[in-house]
Amino acid sequence: MSTSIHQYRGLNAQSTDNEEEDYPPQLTTLTHEIEKSKWSHIDDLDEFFARVYHYHQNHGMPSLILTEFLNLFQIVFLAFFSVFMLECVNYNFLFQSQHVISDKKNNSFVEKRSLHDVIYPLNQCVNNVDFKIWFSIVIVFIFWVFRLIKAIYNIARYAEIRSFYISALNIHTNDLPNITWNEVLEKLLQMQKKHHLCIHKQELTELDIYNRILRFRNYLVAMVNQGILPPKIDVPIFGQLVLLTTGFKYNFEFLFFWGPFAPFQNCYQLRHEYKVYSKRAELIAELSKSILLLGILNLILSPVIFVWQLLQFLYNYTDLIKRDPSVLGSRRWSNYGRLYFRHFNELDHELDARLSKAYRPAMNYLSSFVSKFLSVLAKFFVLTCGTIFAVLVLLTIYDEDVINIEHLLTIISVTGAIAGIARSLIPDENFVFFTDQMMFQVLAHVHYMPDSWKEHANSYIVRDEFVKLFQYKFVYLLEELLSPIITPFILIFWLRPRAVNLVDFLRNFTVDVVGVGDVCSFAQMDTKRHGNPRWLSKANPKKSHQARNGKTELSLIHFVHTNPKWKLPAESIAFIDQLKDQAIRESSTIEQSITKSINDPKTTDSITEQKMEQSLTKSIYHLQSLVYSPNLPSNLIKSSINSQPQYDFQMQSFGQMPRGGVSRIEGPLFTNKQQTLLSIAQASTLQLSSQGLPLMPGPNITTALENSLDMCFSALYIHE
């Protein structure tokens, strides 16, 4: 990274002579030296780069336009279908077991009911709609108009991005699935030199663009890391609950980042008073008032929002639960987990790639906690409900008139659902349990966890803490369903008293970066300012300024892996070199031990024990167990290794290599071979075992697979 990156100013020392000045005036003289073009001097680079990223990830305009219009249609459909079901259906006639009519001779017979018979005429349907329904329709219509305006605006802006991709980046829509984000990023950096997208810097760096795209997301990640978020509430019987629902998260972002009374006066600049300590008390009172008003507004709108959430739940999940009830017993990374595990400056597709790889190990870890009581109970329900379900289905197949029996279809659906859910709770009898090792397999991909988890991975305390990050799907659905009800109370009674913490956080952890604006200081990944000596950082900042769980150090390592051409600042280079030097020293110690054991066989046992105590040896062992785990037959890394074609790098150039579906890959597909922690470890640890890690044969090339393995190893090593 160029030295200009660290030309940021502390907020307390910032000049207040000209509050309208966003950046140093001397930099604006650069504009006279740059050729004017259509893409010069973009006004809102945050939005521009974010749209460039989303355009790439969505593979162009067709899917973006389709998404916008289907979202609009979904609102109309849900609203009118709900009104139709409430006011236009004759339920008294629909729920009759039979429709008996008489002819002119008073002969009674059963007439088959048709769809037309149970639907009211249009005029009667309209007359049935009362004031409450009309009021709801008006609210939905206003919301729909707002979404329509937003959709038109988004489509217009993405049309500009499409033009930018084609005319400036020379990337056509059909090519997007076969181009990595890293390649788009390189073209953006070249565009700065040619068209000068940013007026305030001569050159942009990868970190500049990431800081702009993830400006507010980095603040959220830092708040979670510092313990300000998420809301944690102690509830009798249930214990401590983490309530970071999508509704609360939306309200929080509205309140702090882009709402009319937000601390940020625009997308790149914090309001000046938040940078001045003397304004602290005034800002705390102002923020408390804003939180209270937002909480009251949420409370007033909660009935409408709750009904909307309920309708979406019924329409989206009823059919899925009926077909596959076990989906409720599946798990997902919680909103809290996604922020807890997220690195600073990590884009969505990079996070999704890591968490997808960690999903299977995480499921296996939690499956190792077998409850015999629950297992026996689940087998009982599988037997009883499954038997009833099977018999009723067979009777229906034999005679379809059986289905006309009252509530029979309900019994079939309920018993099938119970049997499916119960079956998902029965553990695999062929599963091999190594709880501690499974935790390391999870760590290799998620990169973060408290040190205490490693030593007590088999305890229910650790298991319960991990469940907060990796929750049941039905828990997530329940939280989202109840979110309109609980969010107002969280805002008023939990968030409002913490206004002082939020004001102090924004003042203490915001820096002004040249050419970028105000960003979270943690996002600079400065080990000197936010490093921790426990994680190999040489600096020793105040404890209140240290990132927890090695977040600064691991974020830096991850950013280097995903952006290998990034020019690191001096402090970051020193940290990376120190990490490699320690690995080299341990590697040398292992090699000396091996030589000594060969010369003196009597010392073999003690030397082997010493070697296993080395962090390097432990880490390579954990990574090998991940790749070759018997419990991971479809492990992503292992399947990638087995299916990876063996290219002849001497005969083929990059352009001749087959590609496809690479838009969501972390980092570049290929980079120049560099010394990595994994290569250092392999040089020594291959002598400890006849089985090493299978890497690609390219002599001067590092593949995306090798890069991913090295990041896994780096996370394991730094935790040791």
TrEMBL record:
It is found in: Preautophagosomal structure membrane. Residues 1-24 are annotated as: Disordered. Pfam families: ATG9. Its main location: membrane. Coiled coil: none annotated. The keyword Transmembrane applies. The chain crosses the membrane at residues 64-86, 133-153, 290-311, 373-395, 407-426. Keywords: Autophagy, Lipid transport, Membrane, Transmembrane, Transmembrane helix, Transport. The keyword RNA-binding does not apply. One of its GO terms (cellular component) is phagophore assembly site membrane. One of its GO terms (biological process) is protein localization to phagophore assembly site. It comes from the Eukaryota. Residues 1-16 have a biased composition (Polar residues). Belongs to the ATG9 family. Phospholipid scramblase involved in autophagy. Cycles between the preautophagosomal structure/phagophore assembly site (PAS) and the cytoplasmic vesicle pool and supplies membrane for the growing autophagosome. Lipid scramblase activity plays a key role in preautophagosomal structure/phagophore assembly by distributing the phospholipids that arrive through ATG2 from the cytoplasmic to the luminal leaflet of the bilayer, thereby driving autophagosomal membrane expansion. This is Autophagy-related protein 9. It comes from Brachionus plicatilis (Marine rotifer). The lineage of its organism: Eukaryota, Metazoa, Spiralia, Gnathifera, Rotifera.
